[in-house]
Task: inverse folding
């Protein structure tokens, strides 16, 4: 999963980005409204965390611009403004959630996860594909009775593929939703990580789950 | 008691009672004078009439009315009295039979002007007398002339040579009937006076009470104002003209109080708001650090970050306290000669590290020998706030120009790309409101500049800020002279 965090206060940028990365998600940080809007308009994010009082372009303007251009990315407003009217305004303008500073990181992360689940139409934090079980809140993966240890990157890849179960996922999609904005999406990093993941998910006497569509991408599903 | 109502009631009632008394007394005396003059006129006419009925008959005095009876015409027994004397004789030739001889005084005026006197009749009755003294012939002649003589009594006029009996004195007395009438007028007047006063008092009291009712209503209205609710005003309609200015002033006061409260509330909420951001930074930095076991370097880094945030918060709180103290007015200045040349570099020292980290360059332009008489502690707060802002806003690798000239003007200039004209317009507000495009740092600047302004005003100087486009050069000028 990939998050855009638009916030001008450095200590928050750093700690929130760190916490998001530690759950295996990618995060882009924009220090002002202009950059935030550019990121949001030019990349696919699974969720956007938006401060309201930003240099250059106010948070609410970004929100309005995105919703006008029919960008449906879930948006969580993170602000020091706690008046009910402010919350109502933000939510009415199309925000999906609202968290007031100061906040607890644990709560922010839980809300981000809930927003992502909702956007992929999943209510249950535990995803099941055949006998594969992904607990997205505890970030544990099991296949049958077997626990599977994954690195943060592998987990992020699996979670993204699982969210789009049965759909063709291109390398670019994977790149955009699991990697931060640096490096070159043309590299074969995605293929390498898919290879690692496939190997770890493969257990004796069990069907493979990740299928390659040559020249197009990958599909995660239990093939009957 | 200092009561408007009682003052009005007592004042008006006293005045009206006095006026009523004076008017009553004046009316009484006018009536009295009129009655007496009427009485006197009657008496005089009667005297003249009776005197004209006295004739001389062959040297004797002949009184006409005695021929037909013993009372003159129109005589009221017990009220009217008469006595007629010959000028030379002692005994009256005629007198009221029911009057002791000598009861009436002897005197007389002319026909044209009978003399009038007050007498006391036996039995203590007051009476008025009119007296005429006249020559009988003369009197007859008068009579003749009046009646256009027929010549019947031509003979007596021929015997006008007997002067002894020609003079008579006639005194007609009439018991004073005016006094009882006056008494009858006086009694009700005297009784009415206090009655009018009492009734007047009641009416005045009622009117005053009714007139002062709006005051009570105003009291109730003021009492019903709530401290917290805003936009409350006292209704001006149906208010008497006298209360309108009071109410207007009161409403103006309400408005001022409301604005002060609003400022206070905005400030409080903004302060809370500004403190929230660093607290959020502190909490999330600590939380992410504690999430798992970290390397000592990680802990050290986090602790350092928390320390920086805490210092920032401390700075913010100190600024707020300074503002509060200055606004409360309990500040004592300790002025002395401050050498700008030596204090500016001294005060810059704490910022050297941060400026170095951001690759900032300082362009010093201080004229030597500049000094100002001011409180160095307060000046330090102002200057360090300006330095702090400069270090915060100057783009990395940029230049901060610090100037001071012999006129006591200090100038701090730096590029500030994050600032816009709106921010500058509100630079000296404590926290500008409803400005969404503001970052935490700019908020700090707002607070710092507000404090600077307060202090500079206290020190008797001037401070101004401008943003020079297009390079967005933020210039703060401090005039201490």
Result:
């Amino acid at each position: 999963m990939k998050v855009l965090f638009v916030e001008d206060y450095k200590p928050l940028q750093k700690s929130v980005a760190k916490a998001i990365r530690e759950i295996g998600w990618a995060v882009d940080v924009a220090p002002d409204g202009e950059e935030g809007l550019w990121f949001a308009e030019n990349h696919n994010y699974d969720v956007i965390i938006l401060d309201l009082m930003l240099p250059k372009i106010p948070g609410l303007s970004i929100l309005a611009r995105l919703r006008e251009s029919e960008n449906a990315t879930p948006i969580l407003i993170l602000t020091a403004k706690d008046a009910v009217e402010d919350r109502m305004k933000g939510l009415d303008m199309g925000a999906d959630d609202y968290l007031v500073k100061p906040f607890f990181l644990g709560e922010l992360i839980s809300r981000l996860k809930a927003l992502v689940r909702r956007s992929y139409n999943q209510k249950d934090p535990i995803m099941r594909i055949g006998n594969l079980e992904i607990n997205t809140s505890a970030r544990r993966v099991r296949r049958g009775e077997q626990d599977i240890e994954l690195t943060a990157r592998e987990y992020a890849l699996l979670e993204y593929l699982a969210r789009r179960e049965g759909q063709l996922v291109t390398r670019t999609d994977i790149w955009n939703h699991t990697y931060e904005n640096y490096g070159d999406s043309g590299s074969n990093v995605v293929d390498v990580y898919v290879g690692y993941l496939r190997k770890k998910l493969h257990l004796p006497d069990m069907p493979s789950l990740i299928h390659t569509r040559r020249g197009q991408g990958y599909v995660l599903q239990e093939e009957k | 008691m200092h009561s408007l109502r009682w003052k009005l009631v007592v004042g008006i009632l006293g005045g009206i009672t006095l006026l009523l008394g004076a008017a009553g007394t004046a009316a009484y005396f006018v009536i009295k004078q009129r009655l007496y003059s009427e009485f006197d006129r009657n008496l005089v006419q009667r005297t003249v009439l009776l005197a004209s009925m006295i004739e001389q008959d062959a040297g004797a005095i002949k009184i006409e009315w005695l021929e037909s009876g013993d009372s003159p015409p129109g005589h009221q027994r017990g009220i009217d009295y008469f006595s007629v004397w010959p000028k030379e004789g002692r005994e009256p030739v005629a007198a009221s039979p029911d009057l002791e001889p000598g009861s009436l005084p002897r005197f007389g005026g002319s026909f044209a002007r009978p003399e009038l006197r007050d007498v006391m009749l036996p039995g203590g009755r007051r009476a008025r007398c009119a007296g005429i003294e006249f020559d009988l012939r003369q009197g007859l002649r008068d009579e003749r002339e009046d009646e256009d003589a027929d010549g019947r009594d031509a003979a007596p006029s021929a015997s006008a040579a007997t002067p002894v009996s020609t003079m008579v004195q006639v005194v007609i007395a009439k018991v004073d009937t005016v006094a009882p009438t006056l008494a009858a007028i006086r009694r009700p007047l005297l009784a009415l006076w206090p009655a009018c006063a009492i009734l007047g008092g009641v009416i005045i009291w009622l009117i005053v009470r009714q007139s002062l009712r709006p005051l009570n209503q105003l009291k109730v209205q003021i009492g019903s104002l709530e401290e917290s609710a805003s936009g409350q005003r006292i209704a001006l309609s149906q208010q008497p003209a006298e209360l309108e200015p009071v109410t207007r002033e009161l409403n103006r006061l309400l408005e001022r109080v409301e604005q002060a409260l609003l400022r206070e509330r905005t400030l409080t909420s903004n302060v809370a708001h500004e403190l929230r951001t660093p607290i959020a930074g502190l909490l999330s930095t600590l939380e992410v650090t504690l999430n798992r076991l970290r390397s000592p370097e990680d802990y050290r880094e986090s602790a350092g970050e928390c320390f920086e945030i805490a210092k920032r918060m401390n700075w913010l709180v100190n600024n707020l306290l300074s503002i509060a103290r200055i606004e409360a007015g309990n500040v004592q200045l300790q002025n002395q000669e401050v050498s700008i040349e030596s204090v500016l570099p001294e005060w810059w020292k704490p910022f050297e590290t941060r400026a170095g980290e951001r690759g900032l360059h300082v362009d010093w332009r201080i004229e030597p020998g500049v000094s100002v008489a001011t409180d160095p502690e307060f000046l330090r707060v102002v200057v360090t706030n300006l330095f702090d802002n400069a270090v915060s806003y100057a783009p990395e690798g940029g230049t901060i120009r610090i100037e001071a000239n012999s006129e006591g003007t200090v100038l701090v200039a730096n590029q500030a790309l994050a600032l816009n004209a709106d921010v500058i317009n509100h630079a000296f507000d404590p926290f500008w409101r409803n400005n969404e495009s503001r970052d935490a740092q700019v908020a700090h600047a707002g607070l710092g500049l507000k404090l600077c302004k307060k202090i500079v005003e206290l020190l008797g100087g001037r401070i101004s800020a401008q943003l020079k486009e297009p390079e967005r050069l933020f210039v703060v000028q401090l005039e201490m002279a």
